[in-house]
Amino acid sequence: MGRYVRFLFTSVFFLFLYTASAQTIAEEESTLKEFQDTNQPTERFNVFFNSLDRYNVNSAYDWLDTIKIYMSNAQKTGDTLATRLYKVMQAQVYNDLGEYDKSTALAKELYEIKDSLDAGSQKVVLDVLDDNYANLQLFDKQIEIRKQKRELGLTNNVSFYDIYSNLGLYRKARNQYIMEVKPTIADNDSYGLAKYHSKVGNYLRLDDSAPTALSELKKAKAYLDVYDNDISTQKSEADIFESELLKAEIEGNIAKCHVMLGEYEEAIPLLETSIETLKKSPNNKDQSEVVENTLYLAEANLQMEHFTEAKKYLDVEFDNISVLQTIKKNSLLAAFYDKVENYKNASIYYKRNERIKDSLAKKQSALIKQQLVTIVANEDLENSQRLIDEQKRINELARSEMKAKDERINLVFISLIFTLLGFAGLVYAYLKSIKNQRLIAEQKRIIENSLVEKDSLLKEIHHRVKNNLQMVSSLLSLQTKNTRSKAAIVALEEGKSRVKAMALIHQKLYQNDDLSVIEMQGYIESLINSVQSVYKKGGHNISITIDAEGTELDIDRAIPFGLILNELVSNSFKYAFPENDENGKIYIHLRKNGDQGYFEYTDNGIGLPEDSDERAHSSMGLRLINRLVNQLQSKLNIDRNVEGVRFWFNFN
């Protein structure tokens, strides 16, 4: 009885699982079933090529078997059009399976009769041949197909960047891609910019520039996020699917960069999600990315010593894997067996790689050189023709511009004649009218008022500048009180002194009637009083003689002079009289006659130290003085032979 109950329970359980499974499969729409339910060959053609994921339920082999049956029936009934359409689909399936020789044979048959095919079929055939020749590394034939595309109007240009990439010339591929593609993308095309930065980033990654590649790929992801979040643009299911594939490709390449940089934990989740999305794509290139990402996922786990996970990914069998991917897989398997100390198996995979590499080197070296010559020759020919066409276009534009320029000159000449006639009429009317004299007087009064207003505004500006500089000085004072470092206090005091020197210039300007010049005698006296207020413990017993009576300087010269004097007087107060300033003397002489000027500063202190030349390079004050003198287009002279020190220079 118990055995019967268990049997009944097991039967019900499996029946439930079968029903649930059947329901799940039914819910997931099979593109192949939709293909079979369609009656016309052209409609089947559209279902096949317009499906986002034709291998969602049924494999490529299921599709191949079905298409062969339909093609056989079409051949029996003599339906030539249907036979050609099924052959196009069959060529695409072989391409998706990586059986490039079979795909090429079928596509070449169709290529011979391409004139009898519609535009859609022509494009598919040429695209399949293009991809097949790329995978078979027959790049000269690939270029011929691309030229055919251009002649049929399916493309505007024959691009070489992906061919260079297939040859391992990633930098050249990147440069040509940037040159050709970047000018064609609008600034507001977020999706186009995402594809562009993704491609550039991938070329950088392949060229072993992982950090720079990572930056470009993150830009690509940011642009794609903008596109995905843009609700103002209507997106079809195909657009959304393409966006998901691009995101998976970008994230996969970001993860590869992380692996190259040794950042394995960041790489693993990105690789896993990228693989899951790319598996849905019928595109052979995306399936190649699945293989590449799986190998990187195995490498990341291997480096983290997650051996079980690494081996799981290395044991995955792929329908289509390139020679380079096979080499990488063998290397990872060898490394895995090395780490688990199974050296016999490791040796097997190392030897496999050596055999593959030797064979590859023999087959490819001469071929690649020959094809490189072909590519470069073709490229030069195409570029030369393009340059000739461009030059013709430029010449036509130049002729058009010359003609337009002549017309503009004639128009300007005629306009000038009418303007002169009008001006003559105005002059005549002005001479005849007394009212215009009153108008002139009124305008004169307005101008004079404007000048007065301008002077007032300028004075107000100088007043505000002076107030702002005083505020800066006050802030420096507050900072001094909150600072304990003696060196910082000294530096702040010096800064405050320099700010006061500039503030004094603006104060003198707004106090003057003439805003263009400053009377230097009074300015120097005020400046010295200001410096003495900073150095409260020194300078009050020093006899200061100022000889600048009647000398006036504009603001461009007055500010440098004020800062120079500030530094010199401050230095005298601080260093010239270290013991006693009772007999201290400072002499300041400033003269300007016409274009020539002369400045002299002397004190009778202890003079400059022996190493003053060396200090001139390290002392902030002396460096500032030299720069200010250079600003006045002069050179500072220092005389150490007199008692104390003497600074002097000529200026214009």
Summarize the structure in words.
The structure is a single chain. The protein is mostly helical and 652 residues long. It contains 24 helices and seven strands. It has a five-stranded mixed sheet, with helices on one face. It has a two-stranded antiparallel sheet with strand order 1-3. Strand 6 (637-639) and strand 7 form a beta hairpin. Helix 11 runs parallel beside helix 13 (237-260). It is elongated.
Brief digest:
This protein has 652 residues and is mainly alpha-helical. The protein has helices spanning 2-27, 31-37, 41-50, 60-77, 80-97, 100-112, 119-135, 139-151, 161-166, 170-181, 190-206, 210-229, 237-260, 264-278, 284-303, 307-314, 323-339, 343-432, 435-481, 486-511, 520-534, 555-576, 612-618, 620-631, and strands spanning 517-519, 543-547, 552-554, 585-593, 596-603, 637-639, 645-651.
Tag the structure with descriptive keywords:
mainly alpha, 7 strands, disordered N terminus, 6% strand, 652 residues, single chain, five-stranded mixed sheet, 74% helix, two-stranded antiparallel sheet
Shape: elongated
Share of residues in helices: over 70%
Strand content: 5-15%
Query: Which structural class should the secondary elements be placed in?
Result: mainly alpha
Unreliable parts: 1-10, 12-28
Q: Roughly how many Å apart are the termini?
A: 123 Å
**Neighbour order of strands in the largest sheet:** 2-4-5-7-6
Oligomer: single chain
Return the average pLDDT rounded to an integer: 81
Please tell me how large the radius of gyration is.
43 Å
Characterize the main sheet.
5 strands, mixed
Total strand segments: 7
- Counted by DSSP, the helix tally is 24
